[in-house]
Write a structure and sequence with these properties.
single chain; alpha/beta
Length: 193
């Protein structure tokens, strides 16, 4: 399935649940990784621009209106490597950890204005990036997904709707006392809470 279809399905879930609302979801960039020794300044800068600075710039655009209305929700979509980086996960884990710090800083500044800022840390969710990874590896998608599922305590890959469910909760009144958190949506795969 295409990434655009995943995003649209998640967006449709949010709209179905809440109608027209103003939220910012920061999820820029891809998850290219490699060993630290091969990490060039250019590659790191590109990753920082795509992920961290894109989130900063998008938030900067929406922030004044959210503060003025005294209502806003920002969700930074990161990955579980932000909390539990593995070897050969640079620059993504580095950039995503910075995104987690950004989430905490903004949550403190936004709270007095009812602007809630949280992060959702994704594990393996059905997405086009996995279709492409299977192709690059020359492996059937079914086999690729089965191998990934073995790494997940729940024993399966997550669905986009499951990720959207948490986003819906965080932007709803049910999540109105939650800010500054980084929630794993990963079927238990991350070794840290």
């Amino acid at each position: 399935m295409a990434l655009a279809a995943d995003v649209k399905r998640a967006y449709d879930e949010i709209m179905k649940a809440f109608g027209k609302i103003d939220i910012v979801v920061n999820n820029a960039g891809t998850s290219a990784t490699g060993p630290f020794e091969k990490l060039t300044d250019e590659f790191l800068q590109h990753d920082l621009d795509q992920k961290l600075f894109a989130a900063i710039r998008l938030t900067r655009l929406a922030w004044p209106q959210m503060k003025e209305r005294r209502w806003g929700r920002i969700i930074n979509v990161l990955n579980i490597g932000a909390k539990a980086p593995r070897g050969a996960s640079a620059p993504t884990s580095i950039t995503r950890a910075a995104g987690m710090a950004l989430t905490k800083v903004l949550s403190h500044e936004g709270a007095p204005h009812n602007v809630l800022v949280n992060a959702m840390l994704v594990g393996f969710i059905e997405a086009d990036q996995h279709v492409q990874a299977a192709k690059r590896a020359g492996v059937a998608l079914k086999d690729y997904m089965a191998a990934r599922a073995k790494e997940i305590p729940l024993g399966r890959i997550g669905r986009a709707e499951e990720f959207a469910n948490m986003a819906c909760f965080l932007v709803s009144d049910l999540g109105s006392y939650i800010t500054g958190t980084a929630i794993n949506i990963d079927g238990g795969r991350s070794p840290v809470v």
